[in-house]
């Protein structure tokens, strides 16, 4: 889409927000509608709860079907793992599952078009625990996602943090504070 200033603007949407627990066929229908409505990028909330319960075949199915639909339609696909809900071991395992599913079913050419993304930024945490990207969970994701790229999202509120994630190797940042970050200011808020 070209905006009023002539800039090429990409439109993205989140599929199965915020929980990721809808059946995969409903996720695919929602994604198809988003594609029909003009979305350029599809951010799927992976069914991390099913993953935590050992239902890896179901999770693989939705990763395959969602990635296939997006790629066949020339879209960038991101799989949000909701890292704040997971242990370090689960972050590593779910990131690896996404990587392996994409590479084994769609091949290495899909690697630059399918991301692993840290969070929606809306997972309810307790005791002040961050609900978005942290250097710790991003390091785990980077270690286990390659060659798929990683997107750090949620809680990035200043230039120093943004630069740190970029230097770590993430390919994209998700923030609602971009203007303040660019100005070198600190943003506040829950997301």
Summarize the structure.
By secondary structure, the chain is α/β, with parallel strands linked by helices. It has a single domain (12-182), classed as TIM Barrel, CATH 3.20.20.70.
Written account of the structure:
The chain has helices at residues 24-36, 48-52, 56-72, 88-106, 135-145, 159-168, 178-182, and strands spanning 12-15, 41-45, 76-80, 114-117, 150-153, 172-174. It is an alpha/beta fold and 191 residues long. The chain has a single domain (12-182), classed as Alpha-Beta Barrel (TIM Barrel). Strands 1-2-3-4-5-6 form a six-stranded parallel sheet, with helices on one face. α4 (88-106) links the parallel β3 (76-80) and β4 (114-117). It is globular and about 45 Å long.
